[in-house]
Structure formats: C-alpha cells, structure tokens
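DM from R.C. (forwarded with permission)

"hey, sorry to bug you on a friday — could you get me a structure for this? deadline for the figure draft is monday and I only need the backbone to look sensible"
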Amino acid sequence: MRHKSFTVLIPLILFVGAGSVIINHSNAERNLKVLPKDISDEKLDSIMQTYNKALGVKCEFCHVPVKGFTDSLDYASDKEPMKENARKMMRMVIELNSKYFYFDSTQRPEYLKTVTCKTCHQGEPFPPED
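My reply, with the result:
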C-alpha cells in the first residue's frame, strides 16, 4: 500500500513542480517595460489585440520569430526595432491620457482609453500624414 502511494504521489509532485517552473519561466520572459509586470495574461492578450486592430497589423509587426521556428514568435525579444517604437507610443498615450484627460486614480494609467492607438492610426501601421 505504501509503495502504491509513492507511485502516485511522486509523479504528482513532479507534475505540479514542472507546472510552476513553466509558469514562472513564461512570466520572467514577458519583458514588460511599459505595461505592469503583474498584468494578467488575459489582460495582456486583450491589450495586444487592440494594438493589432488599431494598427491593422499582426504580432509579427513588433515580435520576431523564435530562432529555428517560423510559426512561433519570441515575445520577449527586443530584436525588432518596431517593438521599442511601440513602447514609446504606449508611453505617449499613457501620458496624454493621465495628463490631459480625466484621470481616475483608481484605474492604472496604462488602462486609460480616452486617447488610444486608433485615435491617430485609424487602422494603419503608420498614422496618416494629414
């Protein structure tokens, strides 16, 4: 009976341990410099999808492929210069919303939506010149 308990318990402990390593590893590789480090995966994905829509682009616009894999992206990498440009734009939007528009102190400035990417970009990767 005791041997049977160990046979079930040890793989369970290894499985839970591996899961926590994977979760911690993925959070460590997020490389967030503007958005809050404690942002949920769901909130992060939602924000990124609004960027895709506002600029009419896909994730590859700011993220490079994983080395050796063309169908996977390295979201933590800073190799694509457009990613830093996107961070500058994010900081600008955060500043505009928190400085010039009603600022609800109960809401994080990263989540304010008076001025958004779509305000200027209108579905284009680069804002129209006019």
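R.C.: lifesaver. The helical segments are 2-28, 41-55, 81-100, 117-121.
me: no worries. The longest helix spans residues 2-28.
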